[in-house]
Write a structure and sequence with these properties.
Two copies of one chain form a homodimer. Chain A is of the alpha/beta class. The model of chain A has no long low-confidence stretch (mean pLDDT 96). In chain A, the strands form two sheets. Chain A has a six-stranded parallel β-sheet, with helices on one face. In chain A, strands 6-7 form a two-stranded antiparallel ribbon. Chain A has two domains: 166 residues, Rossmann fold (3-Layer(aba) Sandwich), CATH 3.40.50.1970; 202 residues, Dehydroquinate synthase-like - alpha domain (Dehydroquinate synthase-like, alpha domain, Up-down Bundle), CATH 1.20.1090.10. Chains A and B meet through strand 1, helix 8 and helix 9 of A and strand 1, helix 8 and helix 9 of B.
């Protein structure tokens, strides 16, 4: 097991009817900005619940944060935060809204030239403007971690940021929100959380027995609830397990003491930046090729995953590992998620080279758990994903 | 799944050579009281490491906190804390020392008549004197939770306390300490953590799929590492998994969203108070009888545990559930831990009645996950454990 540090101070308030507790979590006299996305919260009742819970606070609303939160739009919000002396933010949405609010949390207190530096120079935020979240879309785990990914349309870039100052102070997780989520986004949520676990697990054995079992627990739970949630998102118990699994998949716990990969995300982000493909679907496109390409380095963990998660008991390590990749592809397909780039765009030629070039430009010369995956490897993997 | 709230702000610093980071975690100018037990830290090198890491701080030492931390001794420490205006405490030890420091954390800021009230009236501590820990004995999980159990010799009582103000600010977990722990205490640590998980898991199914799997993960890991750690406590990977499993067994995570039992602890504490039997061993005495006595209510979870943790695949629910209890007893025996009260004392007659009387006196009329286990039931369970 590797040495590690772990601290996660976010307060989780989980369950039915918990949104009404919101007011108790925000400091009295706070000047609140409530941020949300495209307005789905106005049709599913969450907007009403949140507004009621915020009665007594001075609230400024900012809506229209899109999937893959855009720098330009967030800069508009930042202007209002400064003009109105906002002291607390409330993100009401999924990972995109919460990530956008994290950027604003950092940017509001940033004293450098331009907040873009926070992303470009990967500046760690030690202290941000405080914020809480009401989660409306289980997927990214952003509700209980301190990381964010921000997109800049004009340069077709998608960059990560974070720091210990960017944990939500609280997050309200009411599984009843799941029933109004469209099928496409439910599928994305399951695939996103599933791949988050794989990025922290599908490396090489390092004797971290408990972390491995926790990762496998999340994968098994997602496999178990996926068909239920896709069939009936009003199934409360399935929704609750879905929601909690997504949070636990990326709240830092399972990555402690183990090597992590994250190359699937690095390549996937480029596909979103270039083609606008849903984040989760880019992961489903890249992951199988990535595991085939890095088969020798990952086969022991692939086989452990095959045995424990997919119950494949017979065959050599190689055979079980290969079968495990196929099971993963089948699982994505069972969610209605395609796993080839050509399923999403006919303009895929040249993508692999472009991804490779971008990695080279950014100096990303060694990705993955061994820091040895070069831009040329990424090029081959993306090509295998066509 | 039940509604829940979860917040655990303790910073974990885990791994080899981490004790030297201590100084960074304590506020500058803090007046530190360093508390420890019987002096084993002076022979295994931990005392030296801690003292070196504390150079530059004003430090008062308080040693001699015994297993089952005693109220009278802690009151001596409290006097010094007040006389010397201590602003920060550092617990160097296992659960007893850490629990003792939690009591002091609460007592130092308590403004009522006598700190005994905190225990007697189960007063929740919202804010305590800040403290950190250096864990020397994996077992209780106290290093990452906000609860404590304190003993009062003169009245033969053992009572619980806690509150959100009693989380350690940080805990340093260096698995290298495990190699100098005597066999008896290693066995106790494994059995203690194992039973902690059972108390939060062996109830009835409530559709909390992920929590169940996390609990099973900890049990499986403890089963896997127990023979390794008993044979060779210098096996670093086994020690690291042992240590992290003990912490995760009682840091609050696996109990969220599920019913919990804790009747085994309630009865076990009485056996420690009456006979001085090691805490973990009292749990191993009570648990099997408790599960047999409450078999009908617990058989579904017992069978799930039998299948998933012990891989018992054939038989009816009842048969698998019964076999799972036997496997649990065998596991305790494999650690060298006896599971009958008569193995520890010949003066066991009358114990069951005494436990029952004490529960009645304290108004503990309904324990367990259904709050229906009456003193008369406890009497029968303790008698079954003779």
């Amino acid at each position: 097991m590797l040495n590690f540090e772990f601290k996660n101070p976010t307060k989780i308030i989980f369950g039915k009817g918990q949104i009404e507790k919101l007011g108790n979590e925000i400091p009295e006299n706070a000047k609140v900005m409530m941020l949300y996305g495209g307005g789905s919260i106005k049709t599913n009742g969450i907007y009403e619940q949140v507004k009621n819970a915020l009665s007594g606070f001075e609230v400024v609303e900012f809506s229209g944060i899109p999937a893959n939160p855009e720098y330009e739009i967030l800069m508009d919000a930042l202007k209002i935060i400064k003009e109105k002396n906002i002291t607390y933010m409330l993100a009401v949405g999924g990972g995109s809204v919460i990530d956008g609010v994290k950027f604003l949390s950092a940017a509001a207190l940033y004293t450098g030239d331009t907040p873009w530096d926070i992303l470009k120079n990967a500046i760690k935020t030690e202290k941000g403007l405080p914020f809480g979240t009401v989660l409306t879309l289980p997927a990214t785990g952003s509700e209980m971690n301190s990381g964010a990914v921000i997109t800049r349309k004009e340069t077709q870039e998608k960059l990560a940021m974070g720091g210990p100052g960017l944990f939500p102070e609280f997050s309200i997780l009411d599984p009843e929100v799941v029933k109004s989520i469209p099928e496409r986004q439910l599928a994305n949520g399951v695939a996103d959380a599933y791949t988050h676990v794989l990025e922290q697990y599908m490396t090489y054995p390092i004797g971290a027995l408990l972390q491995d079992r926790f990762s496998e627990s999340i994968l098994q739970t997602l496999i178990e609830i996926a068909p239920k949630i896709m069939k009936d998102p009003a199934d409360y118990d399935a929704a609750a397990n879905f929601m909690w699994s997504c949070t636990m998949a990326l709240n830092g716990l399972i990555q402690k003491g183990v090597p992590t990969d994250w190359a699937v995300h690095a390549m996937g982000h480029e596909l979103t930046a270039l083609f606008g493909i849903d984040h989760a679907r880019t992961l489903a496109v890249i992951a199988p090729s990535h595991y085939h390409y890095n088969f020798e380095a990952k086969k022991e963990k692939l086989a452990q995953y095959g045995k424990r998660v997919w119950n494949i008991q017979s065959g050599s390590t190689e055979e079980i590992a290969k079968a495990a990749i196929e099971k993963t592809v089948d699982f994505f397909h069972s969610l209605g998620i395609d796993t080839k780039l050509s399923d999403y765009t006919s303009a895929y030629e040249g993508t692999a080279e472009k991804v490779s070039e971008r990695f080279t430009e950014r100096g990303w010369l060694g990705l993955g758990e061994h820091k040895t995956l070069a831009p040329a490897d990424a090029e081959k993997i993306v090509k295998m994903s066509y």
